[in-house]
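Quick illustration, no need to memorize.
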Amino acid sequence: MSCTGEIRNIGILAHVDAGKTTLTEQMLYVCGAIRRPGSVDEGTAQTDWLEIERTRGISVRAAQTSMTWRESMINLLDTPGHLDFAGEVERSLAALDGAVLVLSSVEGVQPHTENLWRAIQASGLPRILYFNKIDRAGSRAASLAADLPALLGGYFLPVNAVLSEGGRDCAVGQDAAFLEHLAEAAAEFDDAIAERWLEGESIPQEELKRVVAEQVRAGRITPVVFGSARQTLGVDTLLDAVTEYLPPAETGEQELSALVFKLEHDKAMGKVAHVRLYGGTLSARDVVRLRHGGGRPEDETRPAEKIAQIRKCNGQKYFDVGHVSSGDIAALYGLTSARVGDFIGRVRQGTSYTLANPFFRVKAQPADSSQLTALVTALQELSEEEPLIDCHWEKTEREIDLNITGEIQLEVISALLWDRYRLEAQFSPPSVIYRETPLTVAEGFEAYTMPKPCWAVVRFLLEPLPRGSGVVYDGGRVPHDRLFYKYQEHIKTSFYTCLEQGIRGWEVTDFKCTLIDGGHHTIHTHPLDFFVATPMAFMNGLKNAGTRLLEPFIRVRISAPEDALGKVIGDITGMRGEFDTPVLKNGVFQLECCLPVATSMQYPVRLASLTGGRASFFSRFDGYRDCPEGLGQDAPYRGVNPLDRSKWILYRRGAYTE
């Protein structure tokens, strides 16, 4: 596929079953990239090529495809809509220049739609809304669109209009008032346009579109397109809106900078690193060095690697290109050490938004004990593709730990193990993933001065922060002559790797860490000494402060018949939940509540029983809160604990193997 015009990297995002994969197929068809659109129901969709996707009719992995429209190359990422696979959406957002958020014209703004909207906003991406399924019974696209400012906030510009017949939405067309809407939108954000418009001047449509496009790209205006992907209604209008309003990729940057945003494994070619190129060019046989975006100690010693091949992909189909330039997306082969989040060349700082929160952990064992090593290898490979799985092999216990977001993700892991590796696994019942946080203000100290040659002194101050604050690191206060600034950077880098496990075995959060003192020796200090000392100082600080467990909560939205309200509220109270005032309308109540994950794992099943199957239920992650003493569970420390000082030093110096 060749194109001499601009490149646009866009993502299709939606709540599950809103029709985004069908829309992707129709966009490819209208652009002439495929001869006939595939079907999700028939398992022939271009971007749903995994066996589990075809059999279940849902997307579980982000899939990339390309097309050409109005002389522009559009690289499109079709992302999963189910909350269990929101990690794919998070990683895709980092590679995009704009997004299309698909809504159902029947259901409207659904709970996960709100999550996606917030993620798009936090990522600073311009967006277009596509109201799908206007041909379905119950479509109320126009009224739903009118509610958008109140539900989502912002300025929304209808690009086309819904045409109704017999009280039912059935088609789309050019809105007779489109020019007026366009002028109003431009005037809202441009004083010069407003003055000319109020004076009755006829302003050229292209000038108005140019002003509106500037505001769309600044995130102030969101174009809205109505249509039906299944009937190919409004698809060409959407493609026009993508090329007219969403920004093209910047292609002028000469300094090499490429982000690895997705990994796959090919049976014949090995690891496949999907990259977004922000600057420079890459060619087959180039020798490159990978660095993690967050910085890691081992980045200093990672070897250079040669790019064996560069390909573009359309769903499951790949074709060689041999070269990729700034602004484009491609798949690189030969980079065996690549990980999600790695950069080639300059590390580019961006914003991120957390959509996926795995708050369950399971243990895996092979159905055939002789396949334990094969299962470990397979799950570690899947963990590279989906880092949130965070697979850990406990050698001493001969156990495999996995983090999961829900039961559907576990089903997908099982299916992938069989389809790709012909392995069967057995999983333990899920247990809750807790976190921990310091109880009090305390200092952590380590003087790593023996056995020579070494010299690294680190002193931290740990201070608890309110829930949801995350981790704040304050460094750079120690004078350079006492602790070289490069060593202070080593401490900072090492500090962030310490957060995965605290003294109770869980990730540490909601605190501030300040580097208040430290020291080096001009002769004895080795650059890696602070990567040995920092974890010991940090764990010493946690031990001095003590920690409390934090447990995950979900926010639940329930709709059910009014006669079940008392039973539902009683059940929520029994789960240690909190609820808002219910809203009653036409014999149905709507209720929002917050529930501890530990007590609500099987709540959808129980809710169905309480309401005779007449309830609707949706949940989303709602943060961590203090866990009552005695109700949480500590986790064994994985690996060598820095509190075991002698063993830790030997381990980091390569004299001890776990």
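Residues 619 and 634 are 26 Å apart (CA to CA).
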